[in-house]
Amino acid sequence: MNKHIATLARLVQEGNGWEQDGEKITVSKTSRTAGSAYERVRNAVEYEEEHLLRRNAIRRILGRRRTMDSDEAIQSRGEAILRELIWAKYLPNKIVPAKKIKAVDAILNKYDSLFERVPDNKEHQEMEDWLLDVLSTEVEYTIESPKSGEALATMMFEAMRAHITWGVGTDLDESKKDLLTYIAIHRALLKSNLATLRFRVFMLYVPDWHRPSAKTKRAVEERLMGLIQTIENDIRHPYADQLYRLMRRYALVFWAMEDVIKEHPDEAMEIFRDDDRLKRSIGTAVSERYKVFRKKLYRIVGRAIIFLFLTKMLLALILEVPYDLYVLGALETVPLAINVVFHPVFLALIGLTVRIPAGRNTALVTDHVRKLVNDESASMETIFKVKKPWTQGTLGAVFSSLYGLTFIVSYGVVAWVLTAVLNFNVLSTALFLFFFSLVTFFGIKIRQSVRELLVVERQGGIIGTIFDFFMLPVVRVGRWISLQSPKVNIFIFFLDFIVEAPFKLAIEMIEGWVAFIREKKEEL
After folding, report:
1. pTM for the full model?
2. Which of 58, 207, 252, 458 supports an S-S bond with 136, CB 3.0-4.6 Å?
3. Which sequence ranges are marked TM in the entry (predicted)?
């Protein structure tokens, strides 16, 4: 473990490694202002984790430019991508070495032959999307390598590999266990999305892909479809989600270690050898994580409440008020007010009442770190067991019947209160139940986000158990609605396919005009 700590400390000290010498890529201040403004608008209508924003932007640029004709005599594809990222302020201006252009161009050229292998059939779009995921991740890793993140993942992998006992029924060979553990750690610790996972697993199968020989490239091209299927099977393995939840429970231990190293890179080894200093440093790091989580929680819930309130107001004006006036002949103000106000307030109650058992949790994190540093093998001993499916057999039938009964009771009671007590009509009842299901699902999802900071096991009380028993059907319906709702965000579609291409073309023209004027000035 000390070896991994020393490696991580060294990588933190090295920083992002931008070279100080040589030519730098420079764009105009005007284009950066315009480009970054567009990205802020786009990111506001599609929430994503902050560390994924740049990679998502790279993927959008690649997807858009694959359908465009470009004059590479004026500007290479790599230069165009890097300039767009600098416009959007995903990369610093006058800092990125110009030699990165050749590196990105080499990657794009490497993937051209793979895109040519995509068959023109019903799987065409899926394979293109898959290759764009892998390509965009490799481009980002080439621009700025996540060495410290990979070192942290390696540290956790070595630790967890030594502490996991695979239970009876997990009939996997050691290499498959290692691979699934690696994927779960990337999801839990580095919060890697599907695109990143695809690239990381692809690199495990083709380790020399960064600089492939002609033989390697030919082999990948010939078995591309089979390789994609194998990687997807690994990422979506039946054990994947269960392993992810197991790794998530210990992610805070390694985040805390990383935070201490980043805060004191020069003194890291001394701190980890001194129990008193280690306890104080870990406590400070974990407390800061709690604060950051709380701020993020308030921001997410606040945005959701505003969006929900505006949506409910709009639906009231478009549907409920006309229905009351023209179908029923009178405006029912109480159901209307409840339908507008209840769901935002309910979401706030669910989302903002999250509690972290800070004392016990921090103490356990500190204990895990101390034992890991001292190589005490009993620190995080855990057994991975394949969960028994309770939906099978006679007992499963009984449980399914009981679940169906709770579904009827949960929705039946709410519908009865709405119609018999509060005088809701059919439309207002349907809208209330629809949003009640969605809000409950999203509220529970928000509450569950605290699990990434919990090392201690939470014990549910009798009231919580009863609440879960009757609310689970509502949550399941909310989840079903969210999965069945249209996958296309109309705002994102409008920005990506109507606005972005001409907007970025306009910025390119501004850049070209500025460069032309500068050149003419130099001739004077």
Report:
1. 0.83
2. 58
3. 300-319, 325-350, 395-418, 424-444
